[in-house]
Every structure is written in C-alpha cells, then in structure tokens.
Amino acid sequence: MHIKKIVDLSYPINERTPTFPGDPDVSVAPWTTFEKDRYSVHSLHLGSHSGTHVDSPYHFFQDGLSIDQIPLKQFLGTGVVFDVRGKKKGTPITLDDIAESIEKLKPGSIAVFMTGWDQYVGHPTYYEHPYLNPEVVDEILLRGVKTVFIDALNIDPPDFSSFYGHRAILGASGVIVENLTNLDKIDFPNPFFIAFPLKLQGVDGSPVRAVAVELEFVVITSLHP
Fold first, then answer.
1. What is the phi/psi pair of residue 124, to 5°?
2. What percent of the chain lies above the pLDDT cut of 90?
3. What's the rounded Cα separation, in Å, for the pair 207 and 64?
4. How far apart are CA 60 and CA 52, in angstroms?
5. Does the CA dihedral 17-182-198-65 come out positive or negative?
6. How far apart are CA 214 and CA 216, in angstroms?
7. Which superfamily, per CATH, for 2-11+47-216?
8. pLDDT, tens digit, for every residue of 107-166?
9. Half-sphere exposure of 32 (CA within 13 A, CB side)
C-alpha cells in the first residue's frame, strides 16, 4: 500500500481563521525571536473550535467524552462524500439530496457533506450555510455512522433554532468535524479521511489537520516457486 495523493482539507490558523460567532478570536504572535533570543517560539490564542475542528460529546453533554477520551479510530476512515452543492443559504440538506449515495454508508465509514460553502469564508454568507435535516442525522446514525464531516461552520441551522444534529450525533458518542475546505479537490474514489485532534485533556473539541488520502494497494507476488 502506498499514498498516491493527499488533499489538505484544513484552514490555516491565523487572524483570518473562520470561527463560530462569539468564540475566541485567533491570534498568532512571536514570543521569542531569532534577533533577540536566537530561537523562535510563538504564542497561540484560539478556541477549541477555531478553524477546521472536531466536536466531542463533551461539547454538548456534561458527562460526555472529552476530546482526549475519544478512540483514535473514530477520527479516520473511508468517506462517503455527499455532493450537496447548490443548496440555498439556510436550507436543510434532506434525504432526497443524498439518496444516490446513502447506501454506500456502512458502520465505521465517515459521512462527508460537501456544500461548497467554503467559497464564502470572509463573507457574511458563510454564516448562512445549509444544514443537516434531522431525518438525515437519524438515517446516518441508523446506518452505524458516528463520524460526520462538513465544509460549513455548523451542521445545524445557522439561526441557532435547533442543535438536533449535535445532540443526536454527540449523544451517540459520535464526533463532528466542521469548517472543512477543498472537498472539491478530491478527484479519486474511496477517499480515506484523517482528522486527528490535539490531545487536549478534558476539553470539548480541538482544531484538526484534516486530509483526504488516495491509497493504492499493491499486490506483491513471490519470486520463489
């Protein structure tokens, strides 16, 4: 097996990193410099949900698992990408929108929703994203899927009228990765997704370096009779 291609799905961490309204601002500043100290260290100030990040159950449930308690296998797996680009702002993603590919979901796979909303980062429209209809959330969980990715700020309605998706998925000890980018650059079948968090003890979420990987399996035949 070898890696043919890697697609970076994460936003850079800087002062322009997209964050949820009301979350801490992001700042990256020199702490030491080569000129003064002869080595470089930076000070980082950011929230647990800054940029491309993952939510743990503790994000919504006081007795839920924190990000360091989630089994690492939950942050990687073969993804089923649902192309729902073309949805209007603030509208639900329905079962009809994903009917063509829903049968591909298996226990342990990752449900990936490509809304195309990353094109609006830095614009007010980014905060008026599509969201997952409760029936979609229920169907995903029914099929044994507990890891959900989306290239939008939130899987739930942008007007904060409901957090059904968060409560259902995190309540099932699942995880949610939000604020992805570059999903449209995945041009190969059966992408393998990885989104490992920092090992932040007792914390509700973490920025991630999310990638999609094209794997090629090579059959090695013996030269001996």
1. -55, -30
2. 94
3. 19
4. 18
5. positive
6. 7
7. Putative cyclase (3.50.30.50)
8. 999 999 999 999 999 999 999 999 999 999 999 999 999 999 999 999 999 999 999 999
9. 6
Distant-in-sequence, close-in-space partners of 90: CB < 8 Å, separation ≥ 6: 128, 129, 130, 131, 157, 158, 159
Query: Which residue in this structure is represented by tokens 């997209």?
Result: 18
C-beta separation of 196 from 209 below 8 A: yes
Bin 179: left if φ > 0, else alpha if -120 < ψ < 50, else beta.
left
Copy the structure tokens of residue 156: 């739930």
Whether residue 223 is predicted with pLDDT greater than 60 in this model: the reply is: no
User: Would you give the DSSP letter of residue 142?
Assistant: H
Measured over the CA atoms of residue 145, residue 147, residue 150 and residue 155, the dihedral's sign is positive
CA distance 152 to 137: 16
Distances (CA, A) of 222 to 1, 121, 128, 179, 219: 16, 52, 57, 46, 10
